[in-house]
Amino acid sequence: MKISGAKIVVETLIEQGCETVFGFPGGQVIDLFDELYLSRDRIEHILTAHEQGAAHAADGYARATGKVGVCIATSGPGATNLVTGIATAYLDSVPVVAVTGNVPCSLIGRDSFQEVDILGVTMPVTKHNFIVKDIRELADTLRAAFKIAKSGRPGPVLVDIPKDVQTAEWDFEPRPDPVRPYPLCFASENKLRKAAELINAAERPYIYFGGGIVAGKASRELLALADKTDAPLGCSLMGLSAVPYDCPRFLGMNGIHGHYTSFAALTEADLVIALGVRFSDRAAFEGEPDDRPKVIHIDIDNAELDKNVSADLAIEGDIKDALFRLLPMLEEKSHPEWSGRIEQLRAEEKRRYDAADRLRGERCGKLSPHDIIGVISSIASADDIIVTDVGQHQMWTAQMYPLRKPRTFLTSGGLGTMGFGMGAAIGACTATDKRAVLFTGDGSFGMDLNELATAVSQKTPLVVVIMNNGVLGMVRQIQARCYDKHYSATTLRRQTDFVKVAEAFGAKAGRASTADELRALAEEAFAYNGPFVIDCAVDCDETVQSPLWSEGAERGESNGV
Amino acid sequence: MEYKQYVIGVIVSNVSGVLSRVSGMFTRRGFNIDCLTVGETESASFSRITVAFHGDNDIRDKILKQLEKLHDVKEVEVLDPNDTVIRELLLIKIRNSPSTRQDIMTAVEIFRSKIVDYSPTALICELTGETSKIDAFIELMKPYCIMEMCRTGIVAIERGDNCLKTIKTR
């Protein structure tokens, strides 16, 4: 039976297992939205306040579940508004399919109303993208988009569909099952054997893992590896939540805002086993191959191997399979000297942290980030999904929040997108029916608070915790250290009352400046079935500690900030 | 590491936008292209792109891996310079004057070039060969006033049984 292109899109989305799409209508997707309306009992559409929110929501949906997230926008500005969200998903390897409408084929290339070459725009920030000009190819192109998005290292795929293709008619034959990803690439046996040799010979092994462990569902194998080799574990920002925070071997996050122990141990190790991590410049180590540890690097994306750090042994392959096959090749090891050194480093970290904490002195009626995270985490459950925006609050959360389960920490790691949080949290709640907690700052929240409208209309069980310090703190702390305290454009002389703002949107809200106030509000917030905003007063001089800063000395961050 | 020119053959799906994807990858990742040519293969579903670039082993490997990641790229191979036929085509328009005509003709003959257009004031020579031969011919023509010229960039194919096949399954 012949059906319209718009209906083919909706039927194919349903066929691919998509239950929810996030989007915003417009002139060139009216047909598509008409079909969504007609099929509203089979596929839910969530209207966001802004297309960027829809893209982040699809991203959050995918991060929280591992399933492909879908967003829909109209041509031109609708499509370009998706771009930051698509780029965010691209940098963090999140499977998203973005569907955009476009002007009819006959008007393409003529600078028609709301026409943009979204294929050209998104080429650098998608895994692949398509424009469908022939309705006969529509269903299979969408299927291919899902297949590419979820295969190997996941990523976003955009499908651009001109209006006349949506209105044309063609046969549609639904497939019984969603498309399967391309077969995984498996690590070579030979290379795994070499890896085992290196690991068995190491005296100070260190396991450095990234988001690949979460995406590859390899937490169990990772912990088994650490146990068998008696190695400490450190991770990148994207690796957080892959192992429980209280795992005794876990040293925390690495990189410029990581934990001191994790960072120091990495530099003192004689072998770094890097798993599903891409050595971003935020968390790569420096030094010539001669004076740095040996590196084994295992990743599903061959192009990541030897890209930023040239490894002594680079292995392409699925991480879960590689670890599973590697484990039996390893000897049961114990490194008491190395473990002792790690304990020394931990003690040093605690001493440094306490000293820094004392230095900050009295907080005169304000909350410390530590208090905020402490109170919230004591009330939240281990299943709640922790989301952040970008900035100081993000790093504080990454450093201090006691994460327990994979896929419960959603943050924009690679792109560092302020304004990511609200959309992502809404997407995550929708996908899981769990509560989300968004830690944000007054700077970031200013970029995405419009999505409170969506959270209210969806009754999203979302607790928004604003660490409100009246400044753009991350940039400000760099200005304080390296720019002679020239606080250029980072002091927000705004008079925004976030409680009133939230209430105006129809959300609940309250303000806290002591731990007791925060606790009372949080208890109310976690019992409420809808968005609840807590505005927390934080001092503008709170800083994110960096293990790269030598103690006491104010140091210019020559190696990037 | 040694810095030299590499020539790679790339089999891609013959679809619109594929050239953008390939050339865009080079720009985006900060790699420089010396020259790039593209044309259909024996199968209409695939095109073959020949790219020459300068770099060391490390740059070469990064380029290969990034190309392999592109969905439309089906096969990539570095061509062995000692076992590859490399050709380039030159069309060059030179001022025709009685005093220089004979010298130009001699050069054309020696280089096995061909005159493909002749008018009282200008002539066009066609020349195929390896890049070095083309360069030498252009150098030789400089004194005779080159009015305009264009060259295709290289196409390259390995000798013997070695073939770039579209075997990638993904």
Report on this model:
The complex is a heterodimer of chains A (561) and B (170). Chain A is built from 21 helices and 20 strands. Chain A is α/β, with parallel strands linked by helices. With 170 residues, chain B is an alpha+beta fold. Chain B contains four helices and nine strands. Chain B has helices spanning 18-28, 57-69, 101-110, 131-141; strands at 4-13, 35-40, 46-55, 73-78, 84-95, 114-118, 122-129, 146-151, 155-158. In chain B, 21% of the residues are buried. Chain A binds chain B through residues 119-120, 123-124, 127-128, 131, 148, 151, 182, 301-303, 305-307, 310, and chain B through 17, 20-21, 24, 28, 58, 61-62, 65-66, 68-72, 170.
Please summarize what this structure is:
The complex is a heterodimer of chains A (561) and B (170). Chain A is an alpha/beta fold and 561 residues long. Helix content of chain A is 39%, strand content 17%.
Keywords:
heterodimer; A: alpha/beta; Rossmann fold; 6-stranded parallel sheet; globular; disordered C terminus; B: 170 residues; alpha+beta; Alpha-Beta Plaits; 2 domains; 4-stranded antiparallel sheet
Question: How are the secondary structure elements laid out?
Answer:
The complex is a heterodimer of chains A (561) and B (170).
Chain A: E1 2-4, H1 5-15, E2 20-23, H2 30-38, E3 44-47, H3 51-65, E4 69-73, H4 77-91, E5 96-102, H5 118-122, E6 128-131, H6 138-150, E7 156-162, H7 163-167, E8 169-171, H8 189-201, E9 205-209, H9 211-215, H10 219-229, E10 233-235, E11 250-253, H11 260-268, E12 271-275, E13 294-299, E14 313-316, H12 319-326, H13 336-360, H14 369-379, E15 385-388, H15 392-400, E16 409-410, H16 421-432, E17 436-441, H17 442-448, H18 452-458, E18 462-468, H19 473-482, H20 498-505, E19 508-512, H21 515-527, E20 532-537
Parallel strand pairs in A: 2-3, 2-4, 4-5, 5-7, 6-7, 9-10, 9-12, 10-11, 12-13, 13-14, 15-16, 15-17, 17-18, 18-20, 19-20
Antiparallel strand pairs in A: 1-8
Helix pairs in contact in A: 1-2, 1-6, 3-4, 3-16, 11-13, 14-15, 14-21
Chain B: E1 4-13, H1 18-28, E2 35-40, E3 46-55, H2 57-69, E4 73-78, E5 84-95, H3 101-110, E6 114-118, E7 122-129, H4 131-141, E8 146-151, E9 155-158
Antiparallel strand pairs in B: 1-3, 1-4, 2-3, 5-7, 5-8, 5-9, 6-7
